[in-house]
Protein 1
Amino acid sequence: MLNTIPTDWLYGLGGGLLIGLGGAVFLLGNGRVMGASGILGGLVDGSGKSNMAERLAFLAGVFLMPVLLYPMFSDVDTHATTNIAVLIAAGLCVGVGTRLANGCTSGHGVCGFSRLSLRGIVATVFYIMAGGLTVVLFRHLLGVI
Amino acid sequence: MTRMFLALIAGGLFGAGLFISGMTDTSKVQGWLDVFGNWDPTLAFVIGGAIIPMAIAWLLTNGRKPVVGGEFPSPPEPKLGRNLVMGSILFGIGWGLAGLCPGPSVASLSYGGWPHWVFFAAMLAGMALAPLARAQLDSAVPAE
């Protein structure tokens, strides 16, 4: 049975459960919605000054766990583009966009969708459609990525 | 102190999940968005897996208080504004271009190499510029 399911899907499901568990701890423990863009953005624009330490502790966990896990896995490659213009444009779009929309894949996608928030569902539909069209345009038509 | 500890644990679980699920691999994210190419369904398993504990957590908030005290966040107003739609479209464009979103961007900094730092720096710059962009939008066309 397990042989017929691609390993990537099982790792995806297992990793996804851990992501949801992280969100559950943050919600039930601290009473906060786990949104990566909100936690980061609040530090950048100063709107999160009142709970800066909590934000930094969360981000430290996100950064450090892969440091510990990395040596246990072989062939870890992120396949990121080395095109600096693409990286900068993409980063700017993600930064401005997630703050304007008040959420990203974790806040709107995981946390919003799971409480059936209309805003979360609408945001998720729009960023997936925009992402899909971007890949079609820049990969298949322009050949940039 | 409990608050910091729980935040670290939550972040650690989130980071471990992003790493193990393959969501810091930009080719898997772009592969999921690439419906006209060699479509990769992994991301659907990740989101599906993440929604299960999270939905249970939302159910458990009923009639309870957070461990550290205070109140649970009230449901957002089901209001769909221009900022939500335009912001999400802009985010989707960046997500598709690089295959990275904020969580995986932080999780991959230690092993992804310089491209991840360039993306991360640009993303922080974008976040710093966002209040300005929001003000510009609001003065051009009022949100309401």
Note: The mean pLDDT of chain A is 95.
Protein 2
Amino acid sequence: MKVTLEVWRQKSSENGGKMVSYDVDDITPDMSFLEMLDVLNERLLQKGEDSIAFDHDCREGICGMCSLMINGMPHGPERATTTCQLHMRKFHDGQHITVEPWRASAFPVLKDLVVDRSAFDRVMQKGGYISANTGNAPDANAIPISKKDADIAMDAAACIGCGACVAVCKNSSAMLFVAAKASHLAHLPQGQPERYDRALKMMEQADDEGFGSCTNTYDCEAACPKEISVRHIAQLNKDYLHAALFGK
Amino acid sequence: MNLDSKIPSGPIAEKWTKHKFDMKLVNPANKRKYTVIVVGTGLAGASAAATLAELGYKVLAFTYHDSPRRAHSIAAQGGINAAKNYPNDGDSVHRLFYDTVKGGDFRSREANVHRLSEVSANIIDQCVSQGVPFAREYGGYLSNRSFGGAQVSRTFYARGQTGQQLLLGAYAQLNKEIDKGGVTMFYRKEMLDLVIVNGHARGIITRDLITGKIESFAGDAVLLCTGGYSNVFYLSTNAKACNVTAAYRAYKRGAGFANPCYTQIHPTCIPVSGDHQSKLTLMSESLRNDGRIWVPKKGGDQRSPSQIPENERDYYLERKYPSFGNLSPRDIASRSAKEACDAGRGIGPGARGVYLDFADSIARLGKQVIEERYGNLFEMYERITGENPYNVPMRIYPAPHYTMGGIWVDYNLMSTIPGLHVLGEANFSDHGANRLGASALMQGLADGYFVIPYTIGHYFASSGQGKITADAPEFKQAEQQAAEKIAALLNIHGKRTPTSFHHQLGKLMWDKCGMARNEKGLQEALNEIPSIREEFWNNLFVPGSGSELNQSLELAGRVADFLEFAEVLCNDALHRNESCGGHFREEYQTSEGEAKRDDENYSYVAVWEFNGKGNKPLLNKEPLQFENVHLSVRSYK
């Protein structure tokens, strides 16, 4: 099959960028979207041109490194799928596909389709953990945790930190990302001592990084490749409110 | 090369306890005076960096990713072993130790494996306290499942994302220490060289992947936690960026490289679909708990699986290994799949595949139970292949997955270069010639949380090295060499891409040094690798410059090292005239096609020493002593 790509090219964060058109023929439906880009990149290099820079690593949908706005949708058209797991069989022969980086002021473009998501790490560093130093843990079965709570915690903990929620949000809000971590830990007994402090600190850092506010449009849930539910945002709001009203 | 393993004396079950007491300590107030450089922040690196910072050491941690959470530990699916014996099914520290030594085909170091088994239970405790959401039963207690090579259920898991959850746990602990100031985290910086001063590892040279800046970092010890080298085969289950560069640079600076030929081929991966394939995707071994592996009895059978009646199917693992059946260890399951395909009984495109069939389990347990256990894996399979495994059997084939070989370390995890410690998959010590499923996560975290925090203090307290800064001439010289290498890669101006060379090398390695090896093939590989390398250095094209984000340049540097390292690997495979674990030499097999070990002549660790450019590396040996496990023919029948 053949597709026509419109790809964002930008030399560095200091340069401006523009959309560049590429015809990519002789591709097969079994290729992943990134393998299609690999093929294009090999052809560009053979012509002596610079390849298109994009982030990727595990290529099995778990590292959260890949991104891309594909036809305006984070990770493309397939529900619950990262770009690396999206296959060309989901597109039709001759299709025009636009490929852009995540767009958010907190995620500056570094080159072409690569953005800087270090803001996420800084949010995590402000409380996205349980202070449990190595060596002082009780037996793992000392505190039973109901299967229900463990399952909810796991649902939230499945976040891969890709940033699709921010990219899709009209406010560039990181609310789903922050909520996933806060709610994961809030559902576990080990996470209780720091629960409210965590909600406050992570939210403050997200604000400082320039992520927008949440206006409950739920686009984030629809775009999330791991289908993290917005119910975790409600959990975070509840904890944040509690912390604001009653202190940590 | 001095290969003193420093195994403590005394009974095996008391060695670690005794050693912990015998080691020197660093006073709490003095710990902050020591700087530890941690390269790689996957399971081993993140857990080590966090724990060392908790103790008070100053830690500089490096990742080439944009976040430690991207490390490939995240992709481990099935679980983590621990001798908790929660299911009350007869597990113990000694049984985990025994299973691991036997699973490793008697090519690992007993004392290290026993320590691993001892601390395994603490890992689970620690992870639960960090908030790792392990699977639980309705009563609220932790759930276990079984894995290959064991007859007890000792594997803890978090759906099919155990590696992700354990890594996020270690990452959270790392974040805690970054927040507190104990760890300085460096992102998107790739280690290009190791710096040795007065014979001790004192720092590293890095390249900033965004700006291209070459920098030096000095410290009192260096920890390599940089993973394995499966990508020497080009197609593997490793992430695209996984590479051997950090370990290989250490090797060129004098660290012994142990047992590089012990490479693990994972039996359950999605088969290759075409030349465009950029990586292979693993389907967790846990699937073998409920999936049955089979091929048609008749070669060239083109019928769809549902059309093939029960009596015309060969459930070959159940037939050949009745007591372990579909849960036979990885090396055995992989080779059996190859055997079936070599005999023309493979299925799917190119007939390089076997079925992994869930029909019986779905009939027995219901679709919902199977969905709960493996839902995300089934979805992943469907996304990649376009086939629904609830309705048709999965197609699987073995793929390079893990490397048991690595930098040689002593009992303290220190390499032959004083101060250079190596943790996780990057070292060699615990898995022998074959790693059991769910043991990689265990080893990475054991090294990081529970071993290095003790042994590093002993090194500091006894090494007596003074302070140093990155202005020392050794750093400047190494920086210059790194810059020259980058310039050399950029100035070839040839025609071929780094990927094309990687592809070529990988195919050669897979064909001649993959699942089965023989003398002739290995000789051919050793003849061919230098010619690929020569073409690489004369006909490579890398666009752009070194002072920008340049993904082609990054890859070119890694491929350049693979092109040298591949020879070390083939030399090791050629010298080891026996079959053991992941190393299967066709000349050495039993009449039934099983691996035939030669304990009399090869019961040692082969440690390769760099011997100058263009020269064959030197072989050193660490004899292996088995005092607690009786050397026997590994049988899973």
Note: The beta strands of chain A are 3-10, 17-24, 69-70, 73-74, 96-100, 109-111, 114-115.
